[in-house]
Design a protein that fits this description.
By secondary structure, the protein is an alpha/beta fold. It is built from seven helices and 20 strands. The chain folds into two domains: 331 residues, Glycosidases (TIM Barrel), CATH 3.20.20.80; 73 residues, Golgi alpha-mannosidase II (Immunoglobulin-like, Sandwich), CATH 2.60.40. Bound molecules: acarbose derived pentasaccharide and calcium ion. Calcium ion binds next to loops.
Amino acid sequence: MEHLVIPEGTSEPAYPWWQRYQPISYKFESRSGNHDEFVDMVQRCNAVGVRIFVDAVVNHMAGLGRSGTGSGGSSFDSDQHDFPGVPYTDVDFTPREMCNSGDGNVNNYGDPENVRNCNLVGLTDLYGASSEVRQKVADYFSSAVDIGVAGFRVDAAKHMWPDDLKAMMDLTNNLNTDQGFPANTRPFFYHEVIDRNDGAVTVQQYYGLGRITEFRYCQKITWGIDDFSQLWGIYDPGWGMADPDKAFVFVDNHDNQRGHGGAGDTITYKQPHNYRLGVAFTLAQPYGFTRIMSSYDFGTDTDVGPPHKSDWSTDDVVVTADGQCSNGWVCEHRWPSITKMVRFRNAVAGALTADNKYNDGNVVAFSRGNLGFFAMIKQGTLSMNLQTGMPAGTYSELVTCADVTVNGDGTAQITITNEEEPIFAICQGCSC
Ligand code: ARE
Ligand code: CA
């Protein structure tokens, strides 16, 4: 959506990535392009089976103390609660008396009223109980769905009342059949709720609204890659982690990879060896609905925006002859083992459990029913006979494309020689 622009020459960093989390209106006009360009991207993606999910910021508008013109040309004045590009006026914001903190900001994560009725880091809080606000947010969702968008990440859902969110979702159109979606399909919603057992708002409160981000998974995978013996406990219901059919899991996200919300115990593209293992294990194991990260390199500057042109609009992603990215883009999604493991995940989706588990602290292996078999090694190389649970036959190993023979009793000789990409995967119906 249209967002705040922080130009050069202020006391703040110029054009930081996070300016996009301060909405000015629901026009599709951002540093990434205009409305027509967005429509073109979504529809070209749908034509080749790539679905688009919008990161929707609907808990709040821009922060207090800010005024001027947004990325789409709309004027605004946050202190006056004036956003004519939507339009929103003062009545659309949470009444001050409903927020129990002294300065109006969220400052007590132990109190759901405080978390949901106060301003998150000074961002002007929309009043989700109001039928006008609900309708305007739903209109925004529907405008995206009508273009061909498949669903939404709801930013800061932790700071919205689940009933308000539900009302907004219920008012939203079905997916667009002209864009290839079956009739009467609801958008896919996943909600950003950072629950690390550190407050009164829990992921469980959002059951029934879609998937919920499970940030404890980020910690668990970091610890598990460090110490393989912890990997079988990656889904820990005793720790409050969301049910498998509710959890939305990922190794890192745009905040915790650079020390913003929910950071600490996070592995990222900056530790490529461990990161490959973490993403491969995540895609191989059955828990949760998985998302993979794709980044630009930010070096040590946690504010810097994406590679940009001289007018600060987002620069093109350059793909090299070997299918990798350059020009400042990291494109983890194109790293060979990550791409291959996405194939594996899709192939074994029907198997809900990990079976034939093997873990000696250096080698971890398991099958997914009889649909696929996965192994990875922490150090050194691997040559070992293991039970794969797979039907006898010859399979093409996904990472190396080497032929692998599964014997009549389900065993196979498992070989890993590439210490950079120490991952092995075979699955039924997969080609490398
Ligand atoms: C920026 C400046 C602020 C300024 C503000 C308003 O940094 O100093 O006050 O603007 O002018 C992102 C950035 C923020 C940025 C914001 C707006 O991370 O730095 O503020 O954009 O430009 C909590 C929330 C969670 C949120 C994280 C960051 O619960 O929802 O904080 N995550 C989402 C996005 C962010 C985005 C926003 C929300 C805002 O993913 O990218 O912020 O739209 C514990 C708690 C968590 C808490 C966490 C951090 O773990 O359990 O709930 O997360 O601490 O406080
Ligand atoms: Ca709120």
